[in-house]
Amino acid sequence: MTSRKSDPAAQAAGPLAAVDLGSNSFRLEIGQLQDGHYRRIDYLKETVRLGAGLDDRSRLTERAMRQGLACLARFAERLRGFAPHRVRVVATQTLREAVNREEFLERAEAVLGQPIEVISGREEGRLIYTGVTALLPHAPGRCLVIDIGGRSTEMILDDGPAPLVVESFRTGSVSLSLRYFGDGRLTPAAFRAAQIAAGAELEEGLPTFAAGRWQRALGSSGTVAAVAQVLAATGLTDGTITPAALRWCIEQCLQARRVDALHLPGLKEERRVLIGGGLSVLYTVLMQFGIESLHPVRGALRHGVLVELHQRLLAAQASRAVHDVRDASVRQLQRRFHVDLAQAERVQQVARALYERVEPDAPPETRRELQWAAALHEVGMSVSHHQYHRHGAYLVGHADAPGFSQSQQRRLATLLLGQRGGLGKLRDTLHDERAAWQVLCLRLAVLLCHGRTMPPRFDALRVQRQGREVRLHWPPGWADAHPRTLYLLQEEQAAWQRSGRLRLVLPRAN
C-alpha cells in the first residue's frame, strides 16, 4: 500500500501560489487542487498600472518599476514559507514590450525571491483557457473565450480539453485609455477613434473567431469583470454583457464628459480611469465578432497557472506518466522539424546519466530542461547541417511551444546554441554554475554519440566531480580503441580551459 507521503497526488495537493504580473494589476492567488476540485485559500490584488509606466521608447520608468517592486515586496511577505517549486510567477504584455525588462526582472526576482517567467501572448491565452475550463462546469457546444487585459486581448476557440486556436492582439484597456482618454475627457470622437484602433488590431482574427464557429462566448477577468459588475449593480442585466448594455454604458460616459465626473454603480475607483478604453475594446469585440451576449466566468490566467503547476508537480514526483503539456510541445517540434528520434533518445540518455553524476541535487525543472534540449538538439538540421546548432537555437527560441514561457524557451535555445563550437558565445550564461553544468553535459552527450550510436562501452566510463572540476575515467585500452572519441574529448577539454569556467580533466595518456 502506498503511503500518503509518497503518493504524488497527495504531495501535489497542498497549497500552491500563482502570481500574475499584469499590465494593470498584480495578483497573487493561493489555492489547492484535490480530486479535480479547486479551493481558494487567499487572493491579493493591487492596482499597479505597470503598463502605464511604459514611455514613448517602450521603457519602463523608474517610478513604475518602484510601484511594482513595492507590491511584490508585500506579496513576498505572504509567500514566506512556500517552497520555491510550489510557486509560479508569470508576466504578460507590458514585460513582453518593455525593452528594459531585464533590469526590472532582476530587481523583481530579488524582491520576490522567485523566478519570473515572461510568457508569450499565445501562451497567456492557453493558460487563460486552462483556468476558465478548470473552474467552469462542462457544457455542450464550442466556446469562445475572451480576456481583455491592460495591453493585450486574448481570444481562444476551444476544442474540449484543449484550445483549438489561441491568438493575442495588442490592444487593451490601459493602452487605449492612455492614448485616447489620457486627458480625462470622454468624448464621441475619443470613443470612435479608440474603437477604430481596437478594430484594426482585432481584424485579422475575423475569419478564425467569426460567429458560427462557436456556440457560447465567455469573458474572463479584468475589463469583463468590471463591466459585468456595473451591469449587475444597475439591473440592466444579470451581469451578462450585451451590445445594448455597452451602448448604455458609453452613453453614461458621454453624459459625464469627464472621467472624474463619472459615477456608475458597481464601478470601482481604480477602474474608472480605464473605463473609456475598456468599453471601447469590449464593444468592438462584441460588434466585430457578432457576439450577442458575453457571459463572465471566474477562471483566469492565475488559475491556469495553478492548474499547470499542480500538473508539473505530479509529473515530477510520479513514477507513472503524468501529462505535462511541454512534453507534447517537444514531441510536436520533433515531428515538425524531422528530428532523428533514435539519436535524440541516445543523447538524452547520456546527458541524463552525466548530469546525475555532476548535479545530483539539481531541481526537477533543471533536469527536465536538459532533457528537452537533448531531445531538440538537432532541430536546426531541418534548415542546414552547417551551423545547425545556431539554426536550432533560433527555431526553439521563437517557435510557438505551449507550456513554455519565453524565459524557458530562451534557456533551451541557449543550450542548443552551446551544444557545439566555441564557448565564447555563452560567456554570460556560464557565469551561472548550474547552467554551465547543463551545457557541459549536453556537449559531452552530443560528442559521445557523434557516431549516431550509444558511446562505446559507456557503462565503463566513470564521471567524478570535485567543485568546478569534472574528471572522466575509462578502463585500460579504451582510449586506444576509440581514438576519434578521444580526439573530440581533448578538443572539448581545451574549449573549457579557454572559457575559464568549469574544468574538464581527462586521464593521462599511458
From TrEMBL:
It comes from Caldimonas thermodepolymerans. GO terms for molecular function: exopolyphosphatase activity. GO terms for biological process: polyphosphate catabolic process. It comes from the Bacteria. Residues 34-310 form the Ppx/GppA phosphatase N-terminal domain. This is Exopolyphosphatase/guanosine-5'-triphosphate, 3'-diphosphate pyrophosphatase. InterPro entries: ATPase_NBD, GppA/Ppx_hydrolase, Ppx_GppA_C, Ppx_GppA_N, PyroPPase_GppA_Ppx. Coiled coil: none annotated. Residues 325-493 form the Ppx/GppA phosphatase C-terminal domain. PANTHER family: EXOPOLYPHOSPHATASE. Keywords: Hydrolase.
